Amino acid sequence: MSEQRSRPRIPDQIQRELWARAAGRCEFRGCNELLYKDELTQQRSNLAVISHIVAFSEDGPRGDPVRSKELEKDIRNLMLTCRVHGKIVDDKEKVSDYPEKLLLEFKREHEQRIRMLTEAKENAQTHVLLLQVSIDARDFQIDQTAAFRAILPYYPAEEDAWVIDLSGLNISAESDGFFQVTAESIAIQTREFLRRHPCGQSMKNISVFALAPVPLLVHFGHLLGDLHHIDLYQRHRDSQEWTWKTEEEAEQFYEVVEPDVDDDGRANIALILAVSTSIGREKVDAYVGEDAIVYEIRASNPSVDFLRSRKRLEMFGYEVRRLLALIREAHGHDRTVHLFASVPAPVAIEFGRAVKAFDPPFVIYEYQKANHRYIPALIINTHQT
Fold first, then answer.
1. What is the pTM of this model?
2. DSSP states of 302-329
3. Residue 65 lies in a domain
4. Are residues 329 and 357 both part of a single domain?
5. Looking at the structure, do residues 110 and 129 belong to the same domain, yes or no?
6. Tens digit of pLDDT for each residue in 192-219?
7. Could you please report the per-residue DSSP string of 336-365?
8. How far is residue 85's CA from residue 69's CA, in Å, rounded to a whole number?
9. Which domain holds residue 108?
């Protein structure tokens, strides 16, 4: 057996270059931990380990009688890792799980991503905005790392996302006042976000990730309004990731139903948005009357997985803006419209953004699974002076 060798000292120049290539983050796939600051205490410290892919000793993990010596100070053989994953890389018992080829992939993926992001121009920056509110008594935490992956090739303008977090409230959605309280809190925090990121020629993109009840999502979209440079993202149930699926050619994704009736000014007006699931007319009649004038936008095949690509969201935006114009023309802008929606989060936000001051007020209904009924939750666009 060969004599045990002590760990060689990596030259300062090589260490600096490795830190730069890794952007001070762990290169172990899926970690990306910041290595110059403790997340819990926020204290600054060197939390990194420089790990060898081919061990510096031939008896070490992935060691080799010849290559170990040749590669001991070669930056191509070095990974910047956190202490947890550095220990895994240096564990001889885990060599079969982490062979040389796989660790080289980890390093290449991480350093390519960092190079792509740092080479991006300023107009590729985006402000990342997260909204999370409990749904059906379940709290949600949107993974910031997953959000940052989804925005590629854009990169975040700040180190951390701006988070509007109303999960964990001690008030249930069934309680009186829940939607009014949460809507006001969302309004305050959204206005503060927009105040700190004002519109203008230098306005960067805004990337929005949201999980919340539909009425609050519509309200949130209405607060954002028709600002340019807003990208909306959908969490996909199969992967739990936020990255949009492969783009599609424009198709007839939606069917728009326009009632052929004369409006005598006495009937209620309703709008159904059926993308995630179908909404039967009988469910709407129970709240707005059987003589209601009902418009509808329905997906060609409603399902919780329908919204797979940006193109489907873009086509919804086109259809809803066209339908809002028809409603204004047929009924004016003062008649209240009752909105019933079974839609993914980006569709709800896009609807709120599409509603302009000259459109009618909308009463947004929330479907309560616990008691299988709709409740009027919020009103937007009330034309208050």
1. 0.73
2. --TT---SHHHHHHHHHHHHHHHHHHHH
3. yes
4. yes
5. no
6. 999 887 654 455 689 999 999 999 999 9
7. -EEEEEE--HHHHHHHHHH--TTSPPEEEE
8. 23
9. 12-119
